[in-house]
Design brief:
The structure is a homodimer of 457-residue chains.
Chain A lengths: L1 H9 L1 H12 L11 H18 L2 E6 L6 E6 L7 E7 L19 E3 L2 E3 L3 H22 L5 E7 L9 H7 L8 E4 L11 E6 L1 E10 L5 E2 H4 L6 H10 L22 H10 L3 H7 L11 H10 L2 E10 L8 E2 L2 E10 L5 H15 L5 E11 L2 E2 L5 H14 L4 E5 L4 H10 L3 E3 L15 E3 H20 L1
Parallel strand pairs in A: 3-6, 3-7, 7-17, 8-16
Antiparallel strand pairs in A: 1-2, 2-6, 4-5, 5-18, 8-15, 9-13, 9-14, 10-12, 11-13
Helix pairs in contact in A: 1-4, 1-14, 2-4, 3-4, 4-14, 5-13, 8-10, 12-14
Chain lengths: 457, 457
């Protein structure tokens, strides 16, 4: 390990130049105008894997942008880990908000600024460079490593499940380690061990067969907006929590270590409401409860509503129909279909006379992701961070949905955890995305140590 | 009067030919493509007034389509009545639903089919023809008559108030009699003695300063749709009535004679819900209460709602803002501004933490219209209908808003009542509008008798 660390130190500037070269490729997966660049980024990863010493390097056809695969099998009796990452990036718009152009990487104040540098080009290069260091200094890795870098993460990974299914034998491993993800705060190491699932549906209420004149019919005809508003209001209690019977079916109390992390975080609710531009009295005035709600509780959020006349001015109409788009964030144990079913049952039981109700589910949804809290590798990773950074990492959850965890579990039958050196404040879906170079260095050391300790675990 | 009736009988076919000629002019006021036709209809009315013997016949400039004025002053010691009507018509769309073309009047089964024949060309021709009969047979009218026929009623009468104000001396009268309006049902004579006022406003709720990601922020950030839905729901009670404190300020119990008319009407609520296409259990299952709500109670109806994502599929956004368009129908005693103020106060008191509220009123609104129940001319008119039709007319109210009543009261200081021989089932805003020729005949006799009895009253 000391040799490996020396190699990483001696070659850090090369690593940085590699990262800059990678960031010069505008691999925006959602925009067909960047299709050639996206393939160029895939080829960059493949070449970097080959240079590091990986075998069987290949672009996997997916039906969309290719995924890049490579492997380094040292000894079949050693455990095998699959590293996940993505070479595609978010669109750079709005361009005029960038201090330096998004695809011309710029070093300022110990940070490298470029689109994709933090999400996920910097973090995914780390394990590849670490593998190279082991190969140069020891001729082999302490464990077997497979690498799968996809090119459609920023487009919702539409071909990822099928790709895992097609290549499940080649991708077989003991555990997935994601180089994508992010530490929660810059001032404290953290491990993301849970994220919420998602299910989307639409609720439509119908009254009369067509819009009616509000003068002639006002007071007697069924008003679809009134019925919809009352139904929506019935879905939450006074405290803002979901009040649907059966909504929490299958759930268990959250991991006590995450609650402990929340308590340690001393989160400032007022500062949060300031950041999101809500300059009114804070709806939830203590940080502990706020984080519990964001990380560990399921939600039912109204994403859109429409009905009746929505143009300028006024129109004296009683709307025949009104609808709302809803998504639920799910916690461990909640099944997407069951959640929609209990919400539908709740609404049907409260439907006022004179109306019909439709509930339409959008897609199958995804269950919550969570790392087994007793997973040995998780404890190894936490130990690495504690030793390198001088503080026990927090176990954090995230409110957003990370579908890949559930995908690996489903198609490969393996657990996954996140070991990323991106930080959530690095503006990775906004102008002036950056990556802290100190974390690039720490990440290289941390991955080197992780591989060594996983071999011994 | 017997001479006049003989004249009307002898010249009924000419009257019918006049009405057909009038209906051949497509005077659609809302569509600039018909601008020339609309002026042609104004000229038709002016010529018909001159032929009947009216003096001072003139097209009054309004800034939009002209109004037509004429007068017949028999004796300045007699009372003066102003007849109101409108020569413009609704658009004829959808054309393909007409059995015969809308501007080619067609007699079938005792009805004349044409756009505008019932609203308001037939009814407004009646008093002109009656005046002509008096002039031919007696050389004078039993009362003084002024006639004002506007050309923008179907466009919301945007220049009507200004026209009344400009010409208020010329238009001075003891009472306005509107030839526009409609009997409620074909099987029973009725007088419309009240209609509801109107005020429109928009309610907007703001949470965060921009839409937020529902994964990251779900459960903690303020959801504007949820707050709006709860606020809207708070505006009505369980029985569907408005539950805002102060909403009924200034109102009095309704005219007992209208309640009596409602009870006599034996209205079928189930048939009503069938007609409007609500094939669900009737929200209000007795006809008496339904008519009381439609005619005599104020409403607060949601006309439109919007917020968040409204496109196809789904978007995981927590909307920063949501808004609803609302109109209230008002009864006698309710002031539009006061109604908006008490609704605003109600909403502000219930605004959840974390949100801001805006209430924007659209225009000044209009108060309810109602005829003084003791107006002598109203009783004269009721007596005419009772004598001619063999049954006491019902005193009915209408849910929709008739701004002209309030306009005449405001600018001329005179009361108004409706004496129309249109019937509310004559499809006047739909394809195949028709006018019952029996009512054309009855209307001629009734107006002749009305003028004679008003002179004696």
């Amino acid at each position: 390990m000391s040799n490996v660390q020396s190699y990483l130190d001696a070659h850090f500037n090369e690593a940085l130049e590699d990262l800059k070269a990678f960031c010069r490729i505008p691999s925006v997966s959602t925009d067909p105008a960047f299709a050639e660049d996206t393939v160029a980024a895939a080829n960059f990863v493949a070449e970097r894997l080959q240079r590091a010493g990986f075998a069987s390097v290949e672009l996997l056809e997916t039906g969309g942008h290719p995924a890049v695969y490579g492997e380094l099998i040292s000894d079949t009796t050693l455990p095998t880990f699959l590293v996940y990452g993505h070479y595609d990036v978010q669109p750079p718009d709005p361009l005029e908000k960038w201090v330096t152009p998004p695809f011309e990487p710029d070093e300022r104040d110990g940070r490298l600024y470029a689109r994709g540098v933090s999400d996920d080009k910097g973090p995914l290069l780390i394990p590849i460079i670490v593998a190279e260091a082991y190969m140069k200094m020891a001729g082999r890795l302490p464990v077997n490593l497979k690498v799968l870098i996809e090119g459609e993460e920023e487009s919702g990974s539409p071909h990822f499940d099928a790709t895992l299914q097609t290549h499940r034998e080649r991708l077989a491993c003991d555990l997935v380690i994601s180089a994508d993800g992010a530490m929660w705060r810059p001032d404290r190491p953290s491990m993301t061990v849970a994220s919420r699932g998602l299910v989307a549906f639409e609720v439509t209420v119908d009254g009369a067969s067509k819009d009616l004149h509000s003068g002639r019919h006002g007071g007697s005809a069924p008003n679809a907006i009134a019925a919809l508003a009352a139904l929506l209001t019935s879905l939450h209690g006074e405290d803002g929590r979901v009040s649907v019977e059966g909504f929490l079916d299958g759930t268990s109390p959250p991991d006590a270590r995450i609650i402990a992390a929340i308590e340690a975080a001393d989160f400032d609710a007022s500062a949060y409401y300031g950041e999101i531009g809500s300059n009114k009295p804070d709806p939830i005035d203590n940080g502990r409860e706020l984080l519990i709600r964001q990380w560990l509780e399921p939600t039912l959020e109204f994403n859109g509503i429409s009905g009746g006349y929505q143009g300028r001015g006024t129109k004296t109409v009683i709307p025949a129909t009104a609808s709302a788009k809803i998504t639920c964030r799910l916690v461990a144990g909640q099944e997407p279909d069951h959640v929609v079913a209990v919400v539908k049952r709740h609404l049907e039981a409260r439907l006022p006379r004179g109306f019909a109700l439709k509930v339409h589910q959008h897609g199958p949804g995804s269950s919550a992701f969570f790392v087994d809290p007793d997973l040995p590798a998780l404890k190894v990773a936490e130990g690495v961070l504690a030793d390198l950074l001088g503080r026990e990492p927090l176990r954090v959850a995230m409110g957003a949905t990370i579908p890949i965890g559930a995908s690996f579990r489903k198609h490969l039958g393996t657990e996954a955890f996140f070991f990323s050196f991106s930080t959530s404040d690095e503006d990775y879906h906004a102008p002036n995305e950056f990556f802290r170079l100190a974390n690039f260095r720490i990440g290289l050391t941390a991955w080197a140590l992780l591989l060594e300790r996983l071999a011994a675990a």
